[in-house]
Amino acid sequence: MTRVLKLSRHNSRKEIQFELDYLKGLSTRERFEMMFRKTKEMLSLLKKHENRKTT
After folding, report:
1. What is the pLDDT at residue 3?
2. Rounded CA gap, 55 and 19, in Å?
């Protein structure tokens, strides 16, 4: 089941708590799978944008 946080105003505390509750609900395996997917995504973006160094 996917949950969505809907607030009438911006509330950082509620957003962070919502995120933490979501992560607590995941199994260790699911957390690692998410981490590996995000790592691949970041590497893809670095390659796409050439990971330029400053001069």
Report:
1. 80
2. 38
